[in-house]
Amino acid sequence: MHHALRLARRGLGRTAPNPAVGCVLVRDDIIVGRGWTAPGGRPHAETAALAQAGGRASGATAYVTLEPCSHHGQTPPCADALVAAGVARVVIAMTDPDHRVDGRGLERLRDAGIQVETGVLEDAARDVNAGFILHRTTDRPLVTLKVASSMDGRIATASGESRWITGPAARASGHLLRATHDAILIGAGTAVADDPELTCRLPGMEDRSPVRVVLDRHLRLPLTGRLVSSAASVPLVIFADAGCDSLRRDALIDAGVDIRHVQPDAALRPDIAAVLHSLADSGITRLLVEGGGQIAASFLNAGLVDGIHWYRAGRVLGGDGLAALAPLEYANLAAAPRFQRMTSTPLGDDLLETWRRQA
């Protein structure tokens, strides 16, 4: 199952709205087939593993990170494929929260006389499928906040200089993080000031760039900027006010930009929950938030940050530097969200800490 989970992680950022699943087929203590969900969600992991195993799948044990599907979609059910292949035993990490499955895959396997075991490395499987689970159960994607700052939590000097606070290893890690998410989000201020591409630029992984999302209420994004000029090749979504300039909106649409409207919240800021629901409706299951301090604070204030990747550089910029987080709205310490540190990894002279929100 550990091997199946490693295979599943290969699909992160490429399978939405489907889950990233891994499957390993073992017969006589030999791996005879393995597979993971292909880009776009098809073929499924079980189908790929069965195709590799061929006739050797008969009598084998299948280790699958998620309950095999039982419904007809673009492809026949994976549970039926396992039955037809003659596997003797199926070991499953977690059941599928999708209402179309949710135990029906297990039932189909057991009705066919196949031995079924569940709950093997379930916590690890839930971690891999956290975005898919949230998408199916709460109609929003998993939200990961990424911050790259100095030791004292600053993302730029007082003059606005920010390139580069962290070193090459940390920046490469950040690009890999982009590749494992379906979409990446920033605010209009960062987009206008930095003119970023928001793509994955690791050699050989250029095709892993996520959907780019900008919260731009008044359509400030320049038509000649990198984001808009590349919208025809790498998807770009802008969330704007319904009353924004129609001529500018039409020009952006002509450039290939997907313009969406959400009502601002009581503080006249984009409604974060509405943004997440809109992204979920278009199949986004994993969202990386890379915006500046105001965007990061907006997501934290809304209680919609599930995890944090914090890159800390060995620099001190001082109190006049630009803070990684804008002021938050917590009246007391008890109201502040708590995060559990999961990993701490040196990256050259920098440090990456990963944190998961505690319930």
Overview of the molecule:
It is a single chain. By secondary structure, the protein is of the alpha/beta class. The chain has 12 helices and 16 strands. Helix 4 links the parallel strand 4 and strand 5. Helix 3 runs parallel beside helix 4. It is globular. The chain starts with a helix and ends with a strand. The model has no long low-confidence stretch (mean pLDDT 93).
Task: Summarize the topology.
Blueprint: H1 2-9, E1 22-27, E2 30-36, H2 45-53, E3 61-64, H3 78-85, E4 89-92, H4 104-111, E5 115-118, H5 122-128, H6 130-138, E6 142-149, E7 154-156, H7 168-179, E8 183-187, H8 188-194, E9 211-215, H9 226-229, E10 236-240, H10 246-254, E11 258-261, H11 272-281, E12 286-289, H12 293-301, E13 307-312, E14 322-323, E15 339-347, E16 350-357
Parallel strand pairs: 3-4, 4-5, 6-12, 6-13, 8-9, 8-12, 9-10, 10-11
Antiparallel strand pairs: 1-2, 1-3, 7-14, 13-16, 15-16
Helix pairs in contact: 3-4
Number of helices: 12
Helix-residue proportion:
25-40%
Gross morphology is globular
What structural class results from the helix and strand content?
alpha/beta
Contiguous uncertain segments of 5+ residues:
none
Count of strand segments: 16
Largest sheet: 9 strands, mixed
Average pLDDT taken over every residue: 93
How much of the sequence lies in strands comes to 15-25%
Distance separating the two termini:
27 Å
List the secondary-structure elements in sequence, H or E: HEEHEHEHEHHEEHEHEHEHEHEHEEEE
